[in-house]
Amino acid sequence: MASQPLRLAEEYGPSPGESELAVNPFDGLPFSSRYYELLEQRHTLPIWAARFTFLEQLESNPTGVVLVSGEPGSGKSTQIPQWCAEFVLARGFQKGQVTVTQPYPLAARSLALRVADEMDLTLGHEVGYSIPQEDCTGPNTLLRFCWDRLLLQEVASTRGTGVWGVLVLDEAQERSVASDSLQGLLQDARLENLPGDLRVVVVTDPALEPKLRAFWGNPPIVHIPREAGERPSPIYRDTIPPDRVEAACQAVLELCRKEAPGDVLVYLPSEEEISLCCESLSREVESLPLQRLPPRVLPLHPDCGQAVQAVYEDMDARKVVVTHWLADFSFSLPSIQHVIDSGLELRSVYNPRIRAEFQVLRPISKCQAEARRLRARGFPPGSCLCLYPKSFLELEAPPLPQPRVCEENLSSLVLLLKRRQIAEPGECHFLDQPAPEALMQALEDLDYLAALDDDGDLSDLGVILSEFPLAPELAKALLASCEFDCVDEMLTLAAMLTAAPGFTRPPLSAEEAALRRALEHTDGDHSSLIQVYEAFIQSGADEAWCQARGLNWAALCQAHKLRRELLELMQRIELPLSLPAFGSEQNRRDLQKALVSGYFLKVARDTDGTGNYLLLTHKHVAQLSSYCCYRSRRAPARPPPWVLYHNFTISKDNCLSIVSEIEPQMLVELAPPYFLSNLPPSESRDLLNQLREGMADSSAGSESSSVQEFRDPCVLQ
């Protein structure tokens, strides 16, 4: 049978002159002229030389695992899925579809669009994609691109995975939590519902090849030849510039003045710097004395949404794409001839000891630096300007990107592993094993949330929590809202906290600041988010309305979709719903109770009345975020004494974000008693224990009084 997919692959690509009636085997329609144009481009890709080798290994390899190793831009992400689709088609669809994972939702959508175009098929029919709040697939979908974390969620939930013929784990060198976890589960043969002859294709950069080869037990490797283009020699700066954004802008402007041909790719560490660079360049390029149209400046980061497709559009003007680590390996742009690299990345790294995220500005890996340089290869080679000395990466950069499983909160992952009945998550194979303390902290948090039973397995509540595409504490708060009759408000809040957590930059004008203040709620940031969402819906989801208030329109649209998805999930599980009552005093207290039920681990107390908050679970001191509604009020007011927060980030100002005032009595009432007992010694813990004792005495007194009242009438009678 080995020859069948190979013959099929040759048959559906004749030139127009050879066969005007050649039909696409996937939909039975004649090929368009664009198909042949794109086919010629595909033939020039380095990976095309490895096509037959790959198909032979996919068909005949007894282990079912094939590694594909090649440099960025070689065509791996677009061609491997198509060849896997040919393989499945040759088997008569008897063994299921092809699923291709991507580490970023934007990459999954972008690749689906490109591959559907190359295969001459309709997106959403034979080729589709699944990303958060957007499922563009149908009953006839054969090839599906999927965000890897979404696939991991599907694997663990009752929704199941369908039947796979081939599973392609793309961009393995990105080391996402979901990709590493899926490899561990597959290597351990933990996915019992998958067919025994499942084919697994792991696609990676050559730098990670030795580790993957050892992990999978020496499977066959398909090596992709290097691209023929010449590689640019990097130009290094003598020192690191004090202002990265300004240095990058000046480098771009210098290229524009020289009118050097080709598009420009700029790498900066963070989304904030990307926005500053785009704003500055958009102003500066308009005044340049150029013979051609001024360059078009385009940001590329996760919040761009569908606007990211603009980087692929053919334009008369030069494109200047400003990005960060997102485009180290994904988003190949053939028109790029010039790269400007800051050599740094800003990453969130979770510390399980204090349950906080650190904003870490660090050097990129040598693997990332090489991938960035290769963006400018060609005939003749382009240019690669490194805004750092050569010794900077040689002395400080690690060889490979850091595995995210060693840097993220693992509570959600452990919940999913428990759902797969893996009793000890530490026994699951990973390319790099996470720290034991990170796994222990995740288990402890799930135990506090009542997601585990006395044996350490998932409780009934834990099973329900694992169904939701939310952080465990947020899913617990949503479930608690069923008890406290505030489901409608909590659905909105869960969607907003996940997809659109408020304002992310200072107001640009006094008018914008006034419009923002009108959206703030006196009860705190959580109620303000609900108010923002309701106002957004009342505006008709108007983009101009969002721009006037400094809100992210795309993120709010995602929140709207997520809310609908969560509502459908609750209805499917047959959980009780409640009518909207936002604004009433009873609803305010009910919403606070629901939040405390999930977020009792994230409570802080103002110890001196000046806004210095001591976190209950450890002795770190933090301040309210500059975007917090309590700080933006005009009238001076004492900060709330007890607050519940959504995130604690250790950065230059150690801030609490998304904060609302709570009553300590509510915390004593709703938090597990053993949680309060396990708090580190502090004045806050003593106050809570006093409250608990007082509430216990009051309860005992009430019971005694009730018994006496019952007895007294008997005596009188």
What labels would you give this structure?
Four Helix Bundle (Hemerythrin (Met), subunit A); 26 helices; Rossmann fold; disordered C terminus; helicase activity; six-stranded parallel β-sheet; nucleus; disordered N terminus; alpha/beta; 21 strands; eight-stranded mixed β-sheet; 717 residues
Strand order of the largest sheet: 4-3-5-2-6-7-1-8
Instruction: Say what the CATH topology of the largest domain is.
Output: Rossmann fold
Mean pLDDT, nearest integer? Answer: 87
What's the CATH class of the largest domain, please?
Alpha Beta
Give a structural overview:
The chain is α/β, with parallel strands linked by helices. The chain has 4 domains: 31-221, Rossmann fold, CATH 3.40.50; 232-403, P-loop containing nucleotide triphosphate hydrolases (Rossmann fold), CATH 3.40.50; 408-427 and 435-582, Four Helix Bundle (Hemerythrin (Met), subunit A) (Up-down Bundle); 595-695, no CATH class. It contains 26 helices and 21 strands. An 8-stranded mixed β-sheet has the order 4-3-5-2-6-7-1-8, with helices on both faces. α1 crosses α4 (76-90) and α9 (244-258) runs parallel beside α10. It starts with a helix and ends with a helix. 44% of the residues are buried. The model is unreliable at 1-12 and 706-717 (pLDDT under 50). It comes from Cercocebus atys (Sooty mangabey). Keywords: ATP-binding, Nucleotide-binding, Nucleus. Residues 57-225 form the Helicase ATP-binding domain.
